Amino acid sequence: MPIRPGLAALAIAALVLVGCAARPLTLGPPSPTPTDDSACASPGEASDAVVVSGDLGNSPVIAADGPFSVDRVERTVLIEGSGDPVAPGDLVEVAITIVNATTGEQAPGTASARVLLDEGAVQPGLLATILCATPGSRIVGVVPAAEAFGSAGQPELAIGPDDDLVFVVDVLALVPLQADGVAVALPDGFPELGLEFDADGRPTVTIPAGDPPGTLLSATLLEGTGAVVGADDEFLVQFQGVNWRTGDVFDETWGDAPRSLVDLLPGVDAALVGRAVGSRVVVIVPPADGFGSAGSPSSGIAGTDTVVYVVDILATTPPAA
């Protein structure tokens, strides 16, 4: 089955825009997730027939003797990485190439994405392909339509109704789900945050007595050692927002999923520029730099309320060249 060029690059960019923008990839409905090696998808005649060359993380050259029609996810490891296998709930950085298993048409380009391996966050066939891999692996998954785009297909990717798919996935890295930097003392007047968090990494913020500062302030609680966030980068974070007046949490990613920070609040965005990945940053945001005189009634924030954000910087993505 010769692999033919696909459609315009915009199609794959639209499918995995979350990867370019550093958001977790969302493709479709959930699938049961393996809990041990015996539940990992196994090789089959179709996945073993896919030949891939090229460097890990770059657009691969794919050839196969198809077409393929499978009734389960077949999964073959072409390059074996190292370390612990990825598991449900992990966040992984991957490079994905898609081929129509029926026609041999390859979707244009290889998409970089950060994929949350959780129910409802990734297409079942892609989830089964990635689970159990170790960082540094290249995997082929041949996926039945029912665990991909189903009867709807994906016309922008030249995938018709009930077409099976081939995924070539390079598992590049495991992305931490919370900051892992070195502890730094916060300045006087900042909320109190201990360094012992719950099992999910959720911080507990204790607001000090008295009035809040009248200006925007930020400080680092955990100092990371990763890449430094640039002014035009898009960065992946966990965060918690607390109302200074009430001490109530009004927004957070903990218990949900990391989020790509896009205009959360200008003062918070600006405070993260120049900080390193792996850092936990505390930002005190007065009304003028936060929700303004209108506040946010739906969140219980009055027009005079100062808010506090505790932000873990998990990853950063520079703008495309």
Summarize the structure.
The protein folds into two domains: 9-175, Chitinase A, domain 3, CATH 3.10.50; 182-317, Chitinase A, domain 3, CATH 3.10.50. 9% of the residues lie in helices and 30% in strands. The chain has five helices and 16 strands.
Q: Care to describe what's here?
A:
This protein is mainly β and 321 residues long. It has two domains: 9-175, Chitinase A, domain 3; 182-317, Chitinase A, domain 3, CATH 3.10.50. The chain is 9% helix and 30% strand. It contains five helices and 16 strands. It has helices spanning 9-15, 17-20, 45-48, 124-130, 266-272; strands at 50-53, 61-64, 74-79, 91-100, 111-116, 137-143, 165-175, 182-183, 192-193, 205-206, 217-223, 234-243, 249-252, 259-261, 280-285, 307-317. Strands 8, 11, 12, 13, 14, 15 and 16 form a seven-stranded antiparallel sheet that branches. It has a five-stranded antiparallel sheet with strand order 3-6-7-4-5. Strands 1-2 form a two-stranded antiparallel ribbon. The radius of gyration is 22 Å and the shape is elongated.
Q: What keywords describe this structure?
A:
321 residues; mainly beta; Chitinase A, domain 3; five-stranded antiparallel sheet; 5 helices; 9% helix; elongated; isomerase; peptidylprolyl isomerase; EC 5.2.1.8
